[in-house]
Amino acid sequence: MTKVLDGVRVLEVAAWTFVPAAGAVLADWGADVIKVEQPGSGDPQRGLVTSALMGGDAANVNYLIEQPNRNKRSLTINLKTPGGRDLLLALAARSDVFLTNWLEPARRKLNIDVDDIRAVNPSIVYVRGSSHGPEGPDSHKGSFDSAAVWSRSGVASVITPPGDYPVVQPAAYNDLAGGQTIAGGIAAALLHRERTGQGAVVDVSLLGLGMWLMSAEIISARAYNITSPVPRNARGKTPNPLVANYQTRDGRYLQLMMLQSDRYWPEFCRTVGRPEWVEQYPDATARYLQRREVIALLDELFAARDLAEWRTILGPMEGAWAPVQTPYEVAEDPQATANAYAQTVRKGDLEFPLITNPVQFDGEAPELRPAPEAGQHTEEILLELGYNWDDIAELSEKGAI
């Protein structure tokens, strides 16, 4: 793949998934991303997740480190020491982007806020990923995507059946979308700097991301003064029977998503072997008025065959549909394989899958390397900066690296 960010250096002072995922995207695109970690412990997520109960090779892979940290280099710095801060500033002076999720009080305490970094590199792009945004009463509070996006922005409320406990979000679901969003903001800021010579401050928050993802629901709720969760159509009342889930004989599900029902209804009826339905329910109005009857017919239709049979039957159809797949299945989806959306990565004697970011350049997927160990490239990076072995030994003795 064309490395569109080749020559760009990103200094990442961040942990967990949301902001590091942005670094992974930039690294996929060719940037040299240097992840700064705490000596000894590294990113706290390194010790949080274990797959040991799984057995086999999976027990040795921390996927929540590997996915948002692939293609990077890792340097350990103790920012609480003078030598560590000096080293960070030396790196910042030679970087194009400073990427962090540290909250403002911590940034100010360690002298790594915007003004501190701009003092050594006035044109650097300074990027802040936060939970709630740079302003407001909660700007100083940290959070995670399941709280700041899934819960606070309203996602859980609209997908949870009435009376049930809120549906739990998939792991890192919104963090990874947020990382992609940050990467887009950084790319725009780099273009702005190229044109003007000025480095921008880029802010992306989980709450802002959640509201963007939920914008249709939020706008409609405010416009129609709907103070409770926006109601879902009960399955038997959906206005378009071609936009619904249907269960197959083997207990699997299909999602039909044919918004222009008049366009797709004739083809659908012929494809499933019910051409008489074209005249029986000739237009969207007729299907709406008789929607309970039509949905019941489609329930009976799809329940007569297994999912594998329906894949074959519906395959040639123009209208949109999809099987409801498991995470295990989607990695082997022929479309995912053809586009290299999942890749196998080798780390020592282990092989495991990682997912590529969805942006490709010139028709090729990015090449993926496994995440580094904490501090794996410390000496390499210091030598590149002009430090000699005596300097490195001194920094180590003083606890700076």
Helical residues, percent: 40-55%
CATH-defined fold name of the largest domain: Rossmann fold
Mean pLDDT: 95
Structural class: alpha/beta
How large is the share of residues in beta strands? 5-15%
Instruction: Give the strand order of the largest sheet, numbering strands 1, 2, ... along the chain.
Output: 3-2-1-4-5-6
The CATH homologous superfamily of the largest domain is called Crotonobetainyl-coa:carnitine coa-transferase, domain 1
- Tell me, what is the CATH class of the largest domain? Alpha Beta
Uncertain stretches of 5 or more adjacent residues: none
Beta-strand segment tally: 11
Largest sheet: 6 strands, parallel
What is the alpha-carbon Rg in Å?
A: 26 Å
| DSSP helical segment count | 20
Number of structural domains: 2
CATH architecture of the largest domain: 3-Layer(aba) Sandwich
Gross morphology: elongated
N-to-C span: 34 Å
Structural overview:
The chain is of the alpha/beta class and 401 residues long. It folds into 2 domains: 9-214 and 337-398, Rossmann fold; 243-325, 2-Layer Sandwich (formyl-coa transferase, domain 3), CATH 3.30.1540.10. Helices cover 41% and strands 14% of the residues. It has 20 helices and 11 strands. It has helices spanning 18-28, 45-48, 63-69, 82-93, 104-109, 114-120, 145-151, 155-159, 173-196, 206-213, 215-223, 261-271, 277-280, 284-289, 291-302, 307-314, 327-330, 334-338, 378-384, 389-397; strands spanning 9-13, 32-37, 73-76, 97-100, 125-130, 201-205, 243-247, 253-257, 321-323, 342-347, 350-355. The protein has a 6-stranded parallel beta sheet with strand order 3-2-1-4-5-6, with helices on both faces. Strands 7-8-9 form a 3-stranded antiparallel beta sheet, with helices on one face. Strands 10-11 form a two-stranded antiparallel sheet. The model has no long low-confidence stretch (mean pLDDT 95).
